[in-house]
Amino acid sequence: NGDISSSSSMQNGGTSAVVAPVTTSTGDPSVASDAGTNRSTYGSSSVPSTTDTKVGASAEDLEEAKKTMPTAGKINVTPLEDKTSEEEPVVYATKLEAKNAFKSLLESANVQSDWSWDQAMRVIISDKRYGALKTLGERKQAFNEYLNQRKKIEVEERRVKQRKARDDFFTMLEECKDLTSSLRWSKAITMFGHDERFNAVERPKEREDLFENYLVELQKKEKAKAAEEHKRRIAEYREFLESCDFIKANTQWRKVQDRLEDDERYARLEKIDRLDVFQDYIRHLEKEEEEQKRIRKEQLRRQERKNRDEFRKMMEEHVADGTLNAKTYWRDYCSQIKDSRAYLAVASNLSGSMPKELFDDVMEELDKQYQDDRALIKDEVKSGKIPMLASWTLEDFQAAVTEDEKYKGVSNINIKLIYEDQIERLKEKDLKEAKKRQRLGDNFLDLLYSIKRKLLLLQHGMILNHYLMIPRNTGIWVARHMLKSFLKSILPASKKGLKRKS
User: Fold this and answer.
1) 78 in Cβ contact with 53 (< 8 Å)
2) Where is this region: Disordered (predicted)?
3) φ and ψ at residue 376, rounded to 5 degrees
4) For the whole model, what pTM was predicted?
5) Helix/strand/coil for 19
6) Is the pLDDT of residue 352 over 50?
């Protein structure tokens, strides 16, 4: 009346064990070697007959089994109490191991995910693992879990199978050398209908969709391949043009076209492509030519700037050694440097400042410094702080100037130039004064000669004749002395002579 499966408490380490009976019948399966382990091999069992012995089945299970049998049959159930002496229990350590043993039974019986409980009962009820779980509810719960797991596995298997079928389908298409993007589906059916990879894709609509998708990708590949081939031919034609040394930046297409026609690289391209490549190459040559011009121009500009710098450096050296100063004239300086490398280099420049202009720049700076130094010293000379005389030498002037700290910045060459300027001015001044004295003396003598006859009538005419015999170039101081002496000697005698005559 109850389930044959029984449980007993085993005092072994305090562990409760689930016990399932074991039959000694030679036709029954052997005890599961590893409880709780799912086996991957699938077995099949026939529907139990009414004469089969129900191992581990309870009365409730037998009732379930009866429902699955045809109504005309009967289940011959041997009383459980008569079989107990022949059964040995299978012990499962845990409930989980018992459940896994039951699921292993379902798997080995190849129970499908769409089976009902009744269908499964017909296959598994005679197996000893059927009694691994105590109650019908536990068995049905494990059965439902198995079905869910089985469905997931079948879905994944179906997905893998479909993916493989699609991959094989594409492989079949790729292996066909005659397949092009213009092939029609009806023609494809004829070409591939005998191939098992074609039929592995079950739905005809899916086959057509896969075929069309493949054609789209094939068309892209064909276009890419054609573009690559076109690119290669253009590159080869460009190399051909570059090898033609008669093509220059100003070459015209119509003048060289006939010289290019015989080459196969020319013939492989369309007319428009040939012209485009040629024009592009001409533009490249023009840019290259412009770049070369720019480089040459830049190199020339740098060289000319270097020439000017070297010429300036030479003039700086000449300023330092006194060759070039504020009083130097270009014609004199040019005659000295006309054979120098620096002068010849800057004279050959095509742009920028020429030698005369660079010279003027230096002279402007020298003259400004000279004028500043000259004005400073000139004021000192004029004020008497530097008592310069016409008889001074350059050394005398330098000694007087360098005594004062404020003249330390004046260069020796400028001191020399200022000395020459000042000494020349003093000499000119003395010369002017001498000329003035000479002129006054000459004027006085002219006066004396003009009154010569009147003076000869005087009593002391001999004295006058004595003075008149003096040379005309004796100077004004002599004239003054002569006039003073003359007047002292002549005036009294003149008065006496006039009185006597009267």
Assistant:
1) yes
2) 1-87
3) -65, -50
4) 0.45
5) strand
6) yes
Tell me the C-alpha distance between 103 and 183, whole Å: 52
Are 438 and 473 a contacting pair, CB within 8 Å?
yes
Beta bridge partners of 90: 20
Q: β-strand 16-20 against 7-9: which pairing, if any?
A: antiparallel
Q: Is 287 exposed, middle or buried (0-12, 13-18, 19+ CB in 10 A)?
A: exposed
For residue 345, give Cα distances in angstroms to 87, 361, 362, 412, 449. 125, 18, 18, 31, 72
Give me the sign of the Cα torsion angle 359, 360, 366, 370: positive
**Model confidence pLDDT, tens digit, residues 257-276:** 999 998 999 999 999 999 99
Burial (Cβ within 10 Å: 0-12, 13-18, ≥19) of residue 296: exposed
Q: What is the CA 186 to chain-centroid distance, rounded?
A: 56
Triad 36, 37, 42: Cα angle to 5°: 125
Q: Can you say whether the dihedral through the CA atoms of 206, 207, 210, 213 is positive or negative?
A: negative
pLDDT in tens, 102-139: 899 899 999 998 899 999 889 988 888 888 888 899 88
Which residue would you say has higher pLDDT here, 489 or 339?
339
Mapped to the 3 state alphabet, what secondary structure does 59-127 carry? HHHHHHHHHHCCCCCCCCCCCHHHHHHHCCCEEECCHHHHHHHHHHHHHHCCCCCCCCHHHHHHHHCCC
Which residues make Cβ contacts (< 8 Å) with residue 203, sequence separation at least 6? Answer: none
Chain CA centroid to CA 347, Å: 42
